[in-house]
Each structure stands twice: as structure tokens, then as C-alpha cells.
Amino acid sequence: MTILAKHAALKQAYDALKESGVDPAHLKFDAILSPTEGVLNGRRTILMGTNNYLGLTFDPDCIESAVDATRSQGTGTTGSRMANGTYMGHSALETALAEFYGRKQCMVFSTGYQANLGVLSSLVGRGDHLMLDADSHASIYDGSRLGQAEVIRFRHNSPDDLYKRLRRLEGAPGDRLIVVEGIYSMLGDTAPLKEIAAVKRETGAYLLVDEAHSMGVLGETGRGLAEAAGVEADVDFIVGTFSKSLGSVGGFCVSDSPDFDIMRIVCRPYMFTASLPPGVVASTLTALHKLQTEPHLRHTLMRNAQRLYDGLQRLGFETGPEPNPIVAVPMPDQETAVIFWKMLIEAGLYLNLAVPPATPNNVRLLRTSISAAHTFAQIDTALDIFAEVGRQLGFFVEGPRRAAGAL
Amino acid sequence: MRQNTQLAVVGGTEAGPNASIRSEISAIFEQVLNRPVSIEDDTDIVEDLGMDSLGVMNFVMAIEDYYDLSIPLDRIAQIQTVADLIRAVQELRSGVPA
Ligand SMILES: Cc1ncc(COP(=O)(O)O)c(C=O)c1O
Question: How far is the CA of A1 from the centre of ligand 1 (A)?
């Protein structure tokens, strides 16, 4: 017996996975060559599961600004904004993000995960009510546990269930905060934000949208689902991350709340961790500028997403409900999911194997995320690999059919 | 059994409201699990009924719909047995704070 013996059940499941020859937790790249290519087990591999939506990780301008800032300001801040002060870059980035979203206030965090921890635990407290979509990201669930508010879960993407639950709270004191995501990270589906905004207005709740996967992806100018759905005025707080479309690391929250700045002295995941290093801040600022001035990146991204989505459907695979840059193919069972994933990698295609408890409804998924940097040739190669592995595993024995039901 | 003692404090007796809530809960279990179940106050919801986390979530949502209430996540975490669940439903219905 060790102190970690309490995780025996999970360990057993993980060991079973390793025995079948895969270990997603220890996948090692020999090299990363570009936003869309790496070397895995000595083989050139197409990267199609890295959330690198705009493909900016190797952008020469982003790299140059990171190098400049690192040369001039050093590799790290070695402490929090509270302790070691705010660098020029931190303020410039906060100003740029606030302007981009047309909001008065912005706070930058060291990761998106910490942004959710900090914001959720500070906006609501004891006596308040936090309404979470059941399929929320781990950082939202963890943020809800860091604070003292009562946490109520509503059915995924169900404004009716949300409404019912808010109605039950009628007459109870305390603030209500609704939390939803722009694009849900596993299935790539979007929140019905118009309807949720209507519920918010009717019940007097506040609304927070986590645009982690939709920033730079959805909306006329890339501001995300709130912009695409035309309900930005109803969204009180937007949380996002730099680790996806902006190609670096970090998180943020923007708002028009006049007393927002108080968060800087109550929000522990902001106060008690080191601030972002100058190089990261600089490349993020450059990437944000590109996101705004190069809309063709977003158009290319959506065209690529559509090509992959259509291609998978044509092959007979099941896909998510919408052709977004996250396309998830459900697998009939764990064994098939693991073998399929392993064979894709051996054939030179890397994507995510997503299994419970990280997935909703206990589904097993092969989760792809497409990038503006993918070429049509890469997407077509990926589709060929999918078709070949599917054929070898007997997915299409009676001609093209819905893959999830095929085995 | 500790839970039963606590139940008595809340005011349930074998023939009283507990028994009727228990039979309602039992029907909801059968509906969610799609098989007959037999439950007692000390039935462990996860261990004895073999529910995984998804099953628990679906079951909790069915209970919430039936009684027209929401069980906050920290309350759900405290519920292990059928008696715990009955107590939570009773308290939330009567507006007694957790
Ligand atoms: C919905 C959502 N929120 C927050 C995060 C956390 O982002 P970060 O990688 O910046 O910690 C993620 C990504 O993992 C996410 O999918």
C-alpha cells in the first residue's frame, strides 16, 4: 500500500491501456517541425490534435517579438504581479485584449485554467449560485470548488433545464452566475447562446462565456461565439486562453464591470503565482494583432474544417453536430478506439484519443483539431489514413456506413 | 446504522414519508438503470447498484426533475446511501439549508 493506492481503479484502467501498447500520457515527440508536423517515433507525422487553430506557433513575427522581449527583459518575471510588479507587456496585452473585445477591463492570468479558477472563485461566493453546464471543462469544475458558492449543474446545452433551475431559486438571496463555453472542447458543439442569454435576462443572472476554443475561430472579427450569436451585450464576462488560437500560453478575462479591478486583490490564482514571462506576453500580443488583421487565417481555418468534416462523413464516419475546427469521431468501444488511434499514429497521423472521464456521456472519441496551417494535401492524406485504418478494422464491410455502429 | 439514526432526527419512520420517498426513488432507479432494483436505506448507490459517474449524473437529474429541485454538487458529493439521498430530498424540499 502506498499513499497513492486510493487511485487503484484509475490505475487499473490506465495499465490496461498501456498493455495494449498505447500511453497517451507519455507520448514523446522527437521533434516539432511546424504547426502541423512533428517527428513521432522517428516518423514524420501530421499533427491534427493540437488546438493550434490559426497555426501561429511558428509565425516569424511572433517568434521575433518573443526573442526581442526575452533579450531585453529576460526569461521570466520570477514572481507575481503583486510581488514583482507589472511589466509594460502585461499592461499592453490587457489593453489590447480589452480593446479587441470592446470592454473596459481585462486581467491576464498565467494559464486559461487559472483564469477560470480565479474568476469563478472570485465572482461568486457564499450564498451565491453558480450554474454550470454539465459538460464544462475541468477548469470550470475546479474553479467552482475553489469558491464557496452553491454549484448547480444543468443539462448540457439545455436553456430549458437552466431556466427551470434558476426558477427554482426564485426568492433565494444571492447572485446567480451562468457559465457556458463557446465551443465545447470534446465534441466541437457550440452553446445555444441566444437562448441562454434570454434565460439570463429573464432571471437576472450574470453570464460568463469561456471562449477558449472559439476565440479567433467564430464571429465576424474572431471574438468568438458571443459575437457570432449577436449577444455580446448580454455576456458579462468572457474568459479565454492564449494556448490555442494565439499559439502561446496564458489566460484572460474581460468585462465592463466597473469594480473589476478589485479582482486583482481577491483572486488568489492571480495573486499567488508568477506572471507570464515577457517573451510569452510579446508573442501573444503579436498573435492577437494577426488574429485581428489577418482574417484570411480564420477563413482558411473554416475551409479546412469543412473539408475534414465533409471528408470524414463521406467515408462513412460519424462526426459531431457542426463543422467546427474540432471534429470528433465517436468509436464503438474502448478497444476499437485504442487500436484505431494507435494505427493512425503508426500511419503518421496524430490526433487525440479521448476517453472517459474526460468525455461526456462515456463516449470514446478520436478528436481532431484542424488548423489554418494545414494544407489540403495534409487533410487529404489524413482522410486517406482514416479510410485505410477504418477499412482494416472492418468499419466499411457493407460499404460506407455509420462508423460508430459498424463493429 | 448511523444513517437511520440521522433519519429519525429528521422525522422519518418506516411507514412515514421515508417509505414513500424510498419507493419513488426506487422507481426512478429502475427507470434510469432499466432493470429491477431492490433498495434499502443503507444501500450504497455506487457500490451496491454498480453505477458509474455518468449513471449517477443521469440518476441525480431524474431525481431533480421528479421532485422539482436542484441538488447542489457539494450535497451530491455527500450522498452515499439511499438514506443520505432521502434526507437530501427531504431537506431541499422543505428548504432546510444543507
Ligand atoms: C474550455 C476550456 N477552458 C479553459 C482551458 C484551459 O486553458 P489553458 O490551456 O490556457 O490552461 C481549456 C483548455 O484546455 C478549455 O478547453
Answer: 34
Whether residue A317 sits in one domain with residue A273: no
CA distances to A160, B30, B40 from B23, rounded to whole Å, are: 28, 11, 10
Residue A326's CATH number: 3.90.1150.10
C-alpha cell at A51: 488546438
* Residue of A144, A148, A152, A361 to mutate when probing chain B, most B C-beta within 10 A: A152
Same domain, A49 and A112: no
Cβ separation B72–A150 shorter than 8 A: yes
pLDDT tens for A50-65 read 999 999 999 999 999 9
Nearest ligand 1 atom to alpha carbon A185? 16
Pairing type for strands A176-181 and A352-354 reads unpaired
Q: Is A300 in the pocket of ligand 1 (CB under 6 A)?
A: no
Any atom of ligand 1 within 6 Å of the Cβ of A109: no
Q: Is A165 on the interface with B (CB under 8 A)?
A: yes
Shortest Cα distance, chain B CAs vs residue A168, angstroms: 7
Which structural domain range is residue A157 located in? 59-293
Rounded to the nearest 10°, the torsion over CA A116, A122, A126, A132 is -30
Domain C-terminal end among A271, A293, A315 = A293
List pLDDT tens digits, range A69-91: 999 999 999 999 999 999 999 99
Domain count, chain A: 2
Based on the domain organization, do A278 and A354 belong to the same domain? no
**Separation CA A168–CA B70 (nearest Å):** 8
Q: Does A225 lie in the same domain as A211?
A: yes
Q: Which residue has the higher pLDDT, A395 or A243?
A: A243
Task: Find out whether the beta carbon of A111 lies less than 6 Å from any atom of ligand 1.
Answer: yes
Tens digits of residue pLDDT in A7-43:
998 888 888 888 877 787 788 999 999 999 999 989 9
Q: Could you tell me if B78 lies within 8 Å of chain A, comparing CB atoms?
A: no
Measured in angstroms, how far is the CA atom of residue B19 from the centroid of ligand 1?
46
Confidence of residue B96 (pLDDT cuts 50, 70, 90): low
ipTM (interface predicted TM): 0.85
| Residue contact B69–A155, C-beta within 8 A | no
Q: Domain limits of chain B?
A: 19-94
Same domain, A353 and A247: no
Is A265 found in the same domain as A186?
yes
Q: How close does chain B come to A361, measured CA to CA in Å? A: 6
Q: Last residue of some domain: A278, A293, A308?
A: A293
Which long-range contacts (C-beta less than 8 Å, at least 24 apart) are formed by A141-145? Answer: A142/A113, A142/A116, A142/A117, A143/A116, A143/A117, A143/A118, A143/A119, A144/A120, A144/B73
> What CATH number should be reported for the domain holding residue A151?
3.40.640.10
B19-94: CATH number = 1.10.1200.10
CA separation for the pair A297, A286 (Å, rounded): 14
Distance CA A373, CA A386 (A): 20
Is the minimum distance from the CB of A181 to ligand 1 under 6 angstroms? yes
Q: Does B5 touch chain A (CB under 8 A)?
A: no
